[in-house]
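Morning!

As promised:
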Amino acid sequence: MHHTFDPNKTITATIDGLTVSVPEGTTILEAAKKAGIIIPTLCHHPDLGVRAVCRICLVAVKGQRRFKTSCNTVLCDGDVVNTNTPEIREARKTVLELILSNHPQDCLKCERNGNCELQDLAKQYNVLEIPFASTHQALPIEEDNPAIVRDMSKCIKCGRCVESCQVVQEVAAINTSCRSTKYGVTTAFNKPLSASTCVYCGQCIAVCPVGALYEKDDTEKVWTALSNPDMHVVVQTAPAVRVALGEEFGLAPGSIETGKMVAALRRLGFDKIFDTNFTADLTIVEEGNELLDRIENGGKLPVLTSCSPGWINYIEQFYPELIPHVSSCKSPQQMFGALAKTYYAKKSGIPAEKIYVVSLMPCTAKKYECTRPEMRSSGYQDVDTVLTTRELGKMIKLAGINYEKLENEDYDAPFGISTGAAVIFGASGGVMEAALRTAHELVTGESLANLDFIPVRGLEGIKEAEVELAGKKLKIAVASSLSKAKVLMEMIKNGTCCYHFIEIMACPGGCIGGGGQPFGTTSEVLQKRLAAVYEIDKNSELRMSHKNPAINTLYEEFLGKPLSHKAHELLHTSYQQQDRG
Amino acid sequence: MSKIVKLISANCGKIRPDSVEDYLNSGGYAALKKAFTMEPLQIIEEVKKAKLLGRGGAAYPAGSKWEQLYEIEEFPKYIVCNADEGEPGTFKDKLLMEQDPLRVIEGMTIAGYVFNSHDGYIYIRGEYRGLQKIFQAAIDNAKKEGFLGENILNTGFSYNIHIMTGAGAYVCGENSALLNSIEGKAGRPRIKPPHLAEVGLFLMPTLVNNVESFANIPTIVNEGGEKYLSYGTADSGGTKLICLSGHIKNRGVFEVPFGVTLRDIIDDPELGGGMAGGRKLKFFHLGGQSGPCGSPEQLDTVYCCRAMRNAGLSVGSGAVVVLDESVCVIDYLKKVTEFFIHESCGKCVPCREGNKQLYLILDKLSKGEATENDLALMKRLSRVMAKSSFCGLGQAASTALDSCLKHFSSEFEAHLNKQCPAGVCFTKKESGE
């Protein structure tokens, strides 16, 4: 198509008097970064398409009449760029003041107070007063759904959420609409999110630089339950939270925080600290058997995984005709909820109505999932409340727990025992890898020598592999992000899909990149969380789900065998077409 | 000597606009026939020699634009005619489309031949709904007579023109926003680069020219680039359609050669004919709302792109809005800014938020509530908007304000002291007292 850059060619230019050599095609923003110059950005996000609308990253390029936005302007050989002239400082500060003139400026009462890109810039640019008149108009806060809150009066119209929803997810629940003073981000016909195609994945929240988008805060519900002496409050922790929670306390991404997280939860007053990893192992046993059953008995293939509620919302709306492919297994969160209020209730002698189940999730769609009418197998809402990683961070801080000083603690029995196969659920490809480890033994009766399925690991959007299973070739694929899921769904629809088993996660990179994870997630951060997940797996004593002794006890004591009637009643479900948008 | 030269408006009002027969009888389609005997590069060479500067407002050399597109070896290429004539005070494309559409069609067809393009689009602004029928009839008739469609004049060249329409957004006159609108997307400008010659309509190489620019192509092909150039000045070839409006005797569209003076345009009896209403000229606004305002001291400036630019003025779209002493500069600028608030696409901060703030400060001035600080802030804002906005709309939104600050600084000062020399502002307050 148009002029393409040769990344093998090096160009040399001057930025703020420094000589910079970078591959051809490098933007001024990136080149400056290499030279140790930080250019401010707002609408730019390293993993999203460039919009160049906030105009904060302006620089002066010699010979150019106007300032250039460094986020999209490619550095050319011989360019002389200045990023810190009086004119540039004036322009950037003016742009900033203009944004602030149409902003509520109520930082103290804002969800993002202390963690806001706009606030940071205001500090950096020494904004002490705003010379422009306020043109801000209050708008109603939209919280009609269980997962995502939209406060459009805080929106700075950077469009990052739109890029995420339209390009990364191809859900297109939101878009920019109208013109001039009315320009903003809306759903189609400005309907509430619950009447849009929104799948509640929360990727819009993850990229919002300000407090315009955030999860529905459920911490108060949990505090109430915790302080109710009649309630037995249990918590389950999703695999991806432990490798991200540290970021809430200033630790490097990828810090493994399992022990401290458990300790913090115990300090908060939870009666039992359990692990969603336990039901992740259970999912593998159930789903592995379901897969083998479908292959042997001519069932619907490929089997599509069902752990990711954003993905379930997506297929229900966008590909309802493919629902029969979806595994009937509930997500680990919902399996846990159902067991907590049945098996655990029986075992502990606490009546189900006295058990309050909290889930700690990297996810916003989980908040919606737990409210689904199907998710009441115990006779009660199986999971009462879902907290995101960010919300747990808030609770730990509010409780005055000095996170740094916490000592590692262990999970409680019986749902605290899990395997390395379960923890890798947190990363894209993990469910597949865990399933393959178990399926191999189910089919051959022999344990695998090498448990690592490298081709399904990593952040690539679509991964595929072929594995030998008792002489049969099993073709598998893994997709993360819904735009990538769409590619595979189209293949199934048009008959070009050759896979037997497909794992799909709604968020890029899987749950480590979930919409409820600490702010500031980029692919760089994801890489570190990813490495931590596999580190935990590598160091696990048990690395195959079916070897989890607590799972075997569960079957012996309660469920009978995989896919039994009881298992179906509690651990499986079905999905229906949804026409919201 | 007459200041009027009719190269492209000669047929207007003289022929039935959708009649191919009338058009042929007045010399129409001779250029297309001639073009078919020429190599595309020869035609581009003539356009270059003609020094045809884009007539939409930016005055970009059409020959260079054509040459750049020609060098791109990717097909299909598209020809797009920008007929989103949205600059207030501009109505010259309307005249051509209404009264001599076949000239525009012929120009677009020659461009189609040059770039071996098979589809041309004309994007006509929503407000020109009525005129679209005439234009469509002209297309249909040209097709019937073999000047459009399959195998034009048995040359083997096939070309169609499609009419597209907007919903009245001024910003769709910006070429990349226009292409988005044709594609069915929101009419907001695209990030450039890539340039439209590389990645244009439907992501393919695209030529976008103004109606008047295309209307000049048949003349250039017929008479040759050198001859065409000789009608104008050394830098600005040919003639320009100008649109006179405001406090002037003769309002309407006139075709003048580049090289006349602004005084000629306003005072010549065959052109503006002087001020209407007996009041003195205060200023004139050139090229639309995005253009600069000029003062009477600049009347002897030669009307050509270079001289105007050197004088801080601009030909722009060809609009000449003439304003007399009854007009208050502040009040006028408020109207201009209101226009840009209404028409900003809203996506970039300096334009979306800046125009609102400019208006608020002008409003304070008009109410006698502004201070020196406000004036300084306004100047800063104008500076930043011009250098930092995403597209031409925001970059040019404060052009009129800037020029007025230069020519009428005393009037701004007067408003700081609650005085309006034109007697427009504060009158209500006075009568209330």
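The domain at 100-215 of chain A is CATH 3.30.70.20 (Alpha-Beta Plaits).

Hope this helps with the figure draft.
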